[in-house]
Request: fold
Amino acid sequence: MSEDISQGEKNLSNLEEKLERTRKELAILYDISNAMRTTLELNHILYIILTGVTAHTGLGFNRAVLFLVNKKERVLEGKMLIGPESGEEAEKIWRYIERENADMEDLISVYKNSENTPTPLSEQIKRLKIPLHSNESSLLAATYHKGNSLHIRRDSIGQYAHDPLLQVFKTNELVVMPLKAKDKVNGIIIADNFYTQKPITENDLKIFTMLANQAGLAIENSQLYEMIVHKSNTDSLTALWNHGFFQDTLLLEIEKAKESNTPVSLLVVDIDNFKKFNDTWGHQSGDVILARLAKLLKDCAREMDFVCRYGGEEFSIILTQTGKEQAFVIAERMREKVAQYKFEIASSAQPLNLTVSIGIASYPEHAQTKEDLISKADKAMYTAKFIGKNKTIMVDTQGD
Reply:
């Protein structure tokens, strides 16, 4: 009889443990789900997901890396890593969390307040591009094609020594988890316990899978939102940023420049004799020229710059964190590239040459406001046209 009571108590204790574990798991998923609903900004979504994977109040893995599918290039691209770079850093982070009693909300809020300083490992991860070949030649490619998670244990990790991910992300046990939306993989998370060496359990995989299901949908929603926003801010002919985006962004960049005490420069670019070109070759040929010129300007710009179609045959380029001297070098590179380019159009048997005139003005040296900066760059561009076209003119050469 006493044995039956003892067994019953043991069963009850096991049941209570399972219920408590389930309660905690549901609480984790609830917190992460709520956090993901607060934003549609993709990088913030990715940060929330990885925080959920690594937080002590979340899944509790030591490190997590997220890759997203680039459909156009047919590759998986490394986007973000959360986790310490060393055991010493890990101890420091865990002591801080314990001392501050930080919960999930506290850890997620770090994203808004941090500069997200890149680390050597995160930079290596971001440079990784894993081809999605059908031969499934890597852990990530295999996970993408099969759509199932992979748990690589200590006794088999050696088989993957030459895997491109593991060449960078050194570990002895890991989980590779697909993120799905409508049964299509749109991303992959890799997680491990590199510092604690805690074994990954079946229960870890179960809750990780539930989180991944939510994460895949959140990523899809964010990407759809960003696509819609991008489309609404893009010129349909040239695929450059449109006039409205230019106005908003220039104002924002000037405000940033004020706060950081850095310059920002503006180029205004106009095609020389474009009306005559349209009259001779027709507006359809003119549209071809505008689209090709837009690509030339974009190719000459840097990733940090904003190349916009101001209107008609006029373009505007916001050069962030750039003073007048560097702006002049960039403008001249663009002008020379256009002058050397052979534009081919269907209505002409021979390639055509075109030139542009460029005006430059810089904040804060030449102007203090958005309107004044545009006006001065515009005047500089008209001066370039007046003195012979195919020239780059700085506003302060006009005696302003």
About this structure: The chain has 13 helices and eleven strands.
